[in-house]
Write a structure and sequence with these properties.
This protein has about 210 residues and is α/β, with parallel strands linked by helices. It is built from 8 helices and 9 strands. It binds guanosine-5'-diphosphate (GDP) and magnesium ion. Magnesium ion binds near residues 23, 24 and 106.
């Protein structure tokens, strides 16, 4: 049996960082490459951007529904960001982890802090930094999906988000997407080899040494 086929405990890979650092782009590349990884699709009350598909990028819902879901404990975590609500639906994550699949989260520092309360040992937290503030602003402007006012708000909040970099296990300065992917591959390979994520080893080693 190849090591990739052995049963293992799924991990929760969190990517956080300021808007425009490249979390969403890196997430897409990870999901293309790792077929045993799935994205946690958040619910949000913000309006869809052009090209965003309901149920694929986000579940776009109204505030009433969001409040109901929060009250019914249907979110693993939720937070208010840029005046809108964002939350991680619980059911999809629990199903994926139980099936030994990794789950990827594109969530902010508030979400990462909340998940730490309930799932600390499953978490792999990666913080994505932009190479410079100029580059961050250029990326937000190039995206051209938000008004100038929204871009200014996102820049103002970047400082706040970045101040939480010390709460993460790994930090990647995303100067070049290919290099950042190399780093993420290395992180995943190492985290998948943690002893606690390979419960099959107990039986394997027992059999290995039985006839010694
Ligand atoms: N806590 C939390 N944050 C989220 C969730 N979904 C998205 N976010 C974060 O909310 C922020 C705004 O996301 P979005 O409106 O898509 O704009 P973006 O920053 O350009 O990706 C980003 O920092 C996301 O990582 C969620 O379910 N929970
Ligand atoms: Mg994003």
């Amino acid at each position: 049996m190849s090591n990739e086929q052995r049963p293992r405990r799924g991990l929760m890979l969190i990517l956080s960082g300021p808007s425009g650092a490249g979390k969403t782009a890196l997430s897409r590349l990870l999901l293309d490459e790792y077929k045993d990884m799935e994205l946690s699709i958040s619910a949000t009350t913000r309006a869809p951007r052009p090209g965003e598909v309901d149920g694929q990028h986000y579940h776009f819902i109204d505030e009433d529904r969001f409040r109901r879901m929060a009250k019914n404990n249907e979110f693993l975590e939720w937070a208010k960001v840029f005046g809108a609500y964002y939350g991680t639906p619980r059911a999809a994550v629990e199903t994926a982890l139980a099936a030994g699949r990794d789950v990827l989260f594109d969530i902010d520092w508030q979400g990462a802090q909340q998940l730490k309360q309930t799932a600390a040992s499953d978490l792999v937290k990666v913080f994505i930094l932009p190479p410079s503030l100029e580059e961050l602003e250029a990326r937000l402007t190039k995206r051209d999906q938000d008004s100038e006012k929204v871009i200014a708000q996102r820049m103002a909040r970047a400082r706040d988000e970045i101040s939480h970099w010390g709460e993460y296990h790994y930090v990647i300065v995303n100067t070049n997407v290919d290099e950042s992917m190399e780093d993420l591959r290395a992180i995943l390979a190492a985290e998948r080899r943690l002893r606690k994520r390979q419960p099959w080893l107990n039986d394997f080693v027992r059999d290995l040494i039985r006839s010694l």
